[in-house]
Amino acid sequence: IGRTFGSVLDACAYNYPTETALVQGDTRLTYDQLFDGIRRTGRALLGLGLRPGDRVAIVMADSPTLLEVMYGALWAGLTIVPLNARLMLADHAYMVGDAQARALVFDAAMAERGHELAREGGIELVIATDEAAVPEGGHLLSRLKRDERGGPGHPDVDVDHECWIQYTGGTTGFPKGAAHTHRTILSTLYSCTLELDVQPGEVSAHVAPLTHSGIVYVLPVWARGGTNVVLGGFDPAKLLAAIERERVTSTLVVPTMLYYLLDLPGIGDVDLSSLRTLTYGAAPIGPDRLEQAL
C-alpha cells in the first residue's frame, strides 16, 4: 500500500462528506464534522513543534475525541503510542519511557493517570482534552485546535515512516513495542477490509478498545463510507440495543462477551437481522457455543 494515513483519511472525508461517520449515544457526526476535528487536531499537534518521528502517547477512554486524537496524529505524520487504559501506572510509565514519547494526551476519565505520568518526568508536552484536567504547564486541546484549519492537505511523509507503536501485553517480561510504518499497518487494515468482508455502508459496533483490537474495523469502515458506533465498553444489553437501533452489520468481541450475549434473557426478542459479521478473537471458543451463536 503506497499511501499514508493522511492520504487515506483525506480520501475518506472527500468521498463521503455527508454520510454518518461516527455515533456514540446521541452524538452523530458526519465525515465532514469528524474529519474537520481530526485535521484540526493534527495541525494543533504540529503547531506545538512536533514533527514526524516524534511519539505521542495517548491514554483515553473510548470516545469520538479519542479517535480525533489518534487519527489526527496519524494524519499529521506523527507516531502514536496507544496505552491500554486498564493497565497499571508502572506499565504505562515503562511504555512512555521506552517509546521516548515527547507528548502525552489524556482525557477527564484518565486525568489522574495522565497527571501521574506527567509527574514521572521526561514528557515535554502534556495535553488534556478537558479543561478541568489540564495540569500546571499543560495544554488544553480545544484551545490549541481553535484557530487551526480543518480542510484537507495532509503533510507529506514517507509511506515507510514509522507511525504506530503498539505494545504487547508483556507476558514474557517487559512489554515490547511493535513499530509499524504507514505501509505495514495500512496493508494490515486493507487485509482486514477484505477478510472481514467490510461492505459499503458498513455499520460496526465497538465494544473492544479502540486503541487495540478495535482498530481492525475503524478505518476499514470509514474507507467504505460506513459508520463506527462507539459503545465505550461491553454492556450486553446496550450492545443488543445498539444493533437493533443502528442496524449494526458487524462487531468484534472476545468469546466471554459472546457467552454473556447468548445467555442474556430476552435475546430472542431483539431484532438482530442486520448483523452480518461477528468477529471474535483473543481466546478459543467452544464449538457448541459457536454453533449456538450462528
Describe the structure.
By secondary structure, this protein is of the alpha/beta class. 39% of the residues lie in helices and 19% in strands. The protein contains eleven helices and 13 strands. It has helices at 5-15, 31-47, 64-75, 89-99, 111-120, 141-145, 182-195, 215-223, 236-246, 255-262, 287-293; strands at 20-24, 27-30, 55-59, 79-82, 103-106, 125-128, 139-140, 162-167, 177-181, 203-206, 227-230, 250-253, 277-280. The strands form three sheets. Strands 2-1-11-10-12-13 form a six-stranded mixed β-sheet, with helices on both faces. Strands 4-3-5-6-7 form a five-stranded parallel β-sheet, with helices on both faces. It starts with a helix and ends with a helix.
Can you count the beta strands? Answer: 13
Strand content: 15-25%
Radius of gyration: 19 Å
The description of the largest β-sheet is: 6 strands, mixed
Q: Would you identify the regions where 5 or more consecutive residues have pLDDT less than 50?
A: none
Q: How many H/I helices?
A: 11
> What is the string of SSEs from the N terminus onward?
HEEHEHEHEHEEHEEHEHEHEHEH
Write a short abstract of this structure.
By secondary structure, the protein is α/β, with parallel strands linked by helices. The protein contains eleven helices and 13 strands. The chain starts with a helix and ends with a helix.
Q: Which properties best describe this structure?
A:
six-stranded mixed beta sheet; five-stranded parallel beta sheet; alpha/beta; globular; 294 residues
